[in-house]
Amino acid sequence: MKFTFAVGGLVLACAMAAPALADKLEEVRERGALICGVLGGFEPFGFTDPATGQSVGYEPDLCTAFAEHLGVDIELKVVTAQGRIPELQQGRVDIEAALLGWAKKRAEQVDFSDVYATVDSRIMVRTDSGIVSGDELADQKIGVAKGSLLESVAQETFPNANVIGFDDTPATYLALKNGRIQGMLMTETTLASLRAQDPEGAETFSIMPEIYRSSQIPFAVRQGEAALLAEANAFLDAYEASGDAQVLWDKWFGANSMLDKERTMLMGDPVVPHD
Amino acid sequence: MIELLEQYGRLLLVGHYPNGPLGGLAMTILTSLLCLAICFPIATLLALARTHGNKTLARFYTGYIYFVRSMPLLMLIFWIYYFLPYVLPFSLSPFVTIVLAITIFSSAYLAEVIRAAIEALPKGQYDAASALGFRYWQTTFLIVLPQALTNCIPGLVSQFILIIKETSLGYIITFNELTYVAHELNKILLVKPVEIFTILAISYFVLCSGLSQLGGQLERRIARGRLSNDSDQ
Amino acid sequence: MTLDYSAILEDRYFDYLVSGAITTFSLALAAWVAAIILGLLIAAVRNIDFLPTRWFCIVFVDYHRSVPLLVQLFVWYFALPELLPQAFTQSINRGNPEVFFAWVSLTLYSASYMSEDIRSGLRAIPPGQFEAARTIGMNYAKMMRWVIFPQAWRLSLPPLVNQALILFKGTSLASAIGVAELSYQARSIETQTFRAFEAFSLVTLIYMVGTIMIMFFGDRLVARYALKRG
Asked: How much is the pLDDT for B230?
């Protein structure tokens, strides 16, 4: 009986509690530091530098630039893919640049800024499996990162496949390498980095041509933080105008990186809503 | 594997300290010690609540034990980390979450150990105390607890081992302990999972197995002490 | 925050919960049964007066009791396939390696604790009974079958029931290697509906129902069969 009461009490307490409504931007200015949530293990978006243990990548750099724009220090906090929305809602981070692609359901939970990157998601397989098209995996096992939108994308695209969510990218990669799964669905930049990082990667893995989702990546803030969001949008426009956006792209994705990808968007492009 | 240890052994031992936050094995041990230090007095009070004789207190004790036994630690961690902040005016760091969750858990298990030790004391001890005119608190603090808690020391060591193992769940909420650091290292190196997870398992094995040897020795020593006391009488 | 359980009880998510519950319960049961058998075996081999096997048992039990279950799961799922024969790994991979290795880890973990419980159950039997069995001309097997075992299992019953509880709760860690059990499904539902509170409260409730059932029937079993030690 006691548990029923305990659970009931918790339910009631949580239902009644409303999140504290202080203005984040003011809080950040007072604190003198911006706490920005970034991912670990998603090279080149956000990952840990082995030498220093610091978060580095496209998104940490972008956060740092945004903090400079605000005139405050930057504090990077690593969040898990699964934890991205709760961490924001509970105010553990002020803002997130954590590969949180725009999606209608997510937009009901957090507020999104304009776009700072776009990225396509593809499937990677072991070359020795002889698979040449992602669609061949329709009834196979496909690994995804738990908490990523791609989990439902995989389930909807391949209703007969066995979709397995792992805690992070390297876990999914290991599962593919060990033959536990036949393919992994992930953003193509992450796949390319994994493949490049592993000395045996290039010969072992192939990335399939099909694109299963194109994501627009904006900053995310807690709902109702209009002032912080406006600053983020103003920052993106200024960052593009100054040419810094191109420099940042070249560093992580473009000419100066191993990916050598063309940029197909501008920072500050508005989100084009879709499902 | 030797090469890996030479290069990253320090990371696994202390995290990025002193250039960054403490982590790794040192964090695991310190957190576990802290949890043990907090849960020991709580467990003692809980055990007293059970043995006091007051029905309400005893019911509270039973409810608490059942609650803890019925809940997977993983779920408790999720509740504290993701949902407790909705009812609190502030959010909890991964460190506080882990300490809180493990303290709630271990207090219950340790309370059972202490309760058993209290109940195992010969009734004559209570008779002697009341013959001396001792009240409840005098009896408890001067007679019962000193003996019962001494007999609990091996149990305390086992609880410490359990706590060390439980801190590994911190990895799920990015708490900087040994398992998480090993995972981070795996993310960085990507191609050395066998070496990293083997080192991780061996670290826990050496630490916990060593502690349990120590616990065994303490147990034998306490048992010997009890025997020689008995023969003195 | 408003609560809406209907959103996560629509067909699709309800199916998630049901399949998660089935996985959790069957994984725990399969591991419990296997662990009892293995635990008995270890306890028996441990008592044989042959140094190598005895040491093997000691280290085996010590390893599985000293290393966190979560780490054991990682070792089995991520590290060991590179050391096991390839043909074996391939045949496992064709099936469901997540569930298989979760089962293996849980079984070994639990069997190590159980073997110690069983040994202490055996130790609780007065030495006079062994002598008596010998005196009336029973051989080792007969003595074990008719004298020792009927008492030992009843002496070991309370800790074995406790292990069932620990196992049931321990299955929640298997989500770390991608086993679609209850806590995994809670996270899946959360990702897809953002109804985190609803998903987690329902799953917690299912866990509690499971553990309370184990405690209830365990207590009945113990009350009916267990022998008091001493």
From this structure: 58
Residue C230 in domain: no
Question: Do A196 and A241 have their domain in common?
Answer: no
In a domain, C161, yes or no: yes
Strand partners, B24: B177
**Residues C3-15 pLDDT 10s:** 888 878 888 899 9
For range A230-257, the mean pLDDT: 95
Rg (CA), chain B: 21
Question: Count of domains in chain B?
Answer: 1
Cα(C200)–Cα(C207) distance, integer angstroms: 10
Q: Which of C193, C188, C196, C189 has its CA nearest to residue A108?
A: C193
Mean pLDDT, chain A, integer: 90
Residue in chain A closest to B10 (alpha carbons) equals A51
pLDDT at site C178: 93
Contacts of A147 in chain C (CB under 8 A): 187, 191
Going by C-alpha positions, the residue among B80, B44, B45, B90 that lies closest to residue B170 is B80
- Residues of A at the C interface (Cβ-Cβ below 8 Å)? 3, 7, 10-11, 14-15, 17-19, 82, 85-86, 105-106, 108-109, 143, 146-149, 151-152, 164-167, 171, 174-175, 178-180
Query: Which range is most confident: A15-19, A33-37, A168-172?
Result: A33-37
**Nearest-angstrom CA–CA distance, C35 and C114:** 7
The 10s digit of each residue's pLDDT in A127-150 is 999 999 999 999 999 999 998 889
All residues of chain A having their beta carbon less than 8 Å from the beta carbon of residue B79 are 10
State how far the Cα of A18 lies from the Cα of B82, in Å rounded to an integer: 14
**Token pair of A206, please?**
């192939």
pLDDT exceeds 70 at position A169: yes
Range of the domain at A29: 21-118+216-252
- The DSSP 8-state label assigned to residue B87 in this structure reads H
Distance CA C3, CA B142 (A): 52
B205 touches chain A (CB under 8 A): no
CB atoms within 10 A of CB C187: 22
DSSP state of A37: E
Q: Which two tokens stand for residue A273?
A: 């809503």
Q: How far is CA C166 from CA B185, C178, C217, in A?
A: 30, 20, 15
**Residue B19's pLDDT band (cuts 50, 70, 90):** confident
A11-25 confidence digits (pLDDT tens):
444 444 444 446 899
Mean pLDDT of chain B: 92
Write the CATH number for B64: 1.10.3720.10
Q: What is the pTM of this model?
A: 0.89
In a domain, A263, yes or no: no
Q: Give the residue on B whose Cα is nearest the Cα of C60.
A: B205
Neighboring chain A residues of C184 at a CB cutoff of 8 Å = 146, 165
Predicted confidence (pLDDT) per residue in A65-85, tens digit: 999 999 999 999 999 988 999
pLDDT at C183 over 70: yes
pLDDT of A12: 46
CA A139 to chain centre: 27
Total domains, chain A: 2
Note whether B192 contacts A: Cβ–Cβ < 8 A: no
> Can you give the residue range of the structural domain that contains C147?
6-225
Top residue of A164, A168, A177, A223 to mutate, by most chain C CBs within 10 Å, is A164
A83 and A129, same domain (yes or no): no
Question: Residues 51 to 110 of B: which have CB under 8 A from any A CB?
Answer: 63, 66-67, 70, 79, 82-83, 85-87, 89, 91, 93
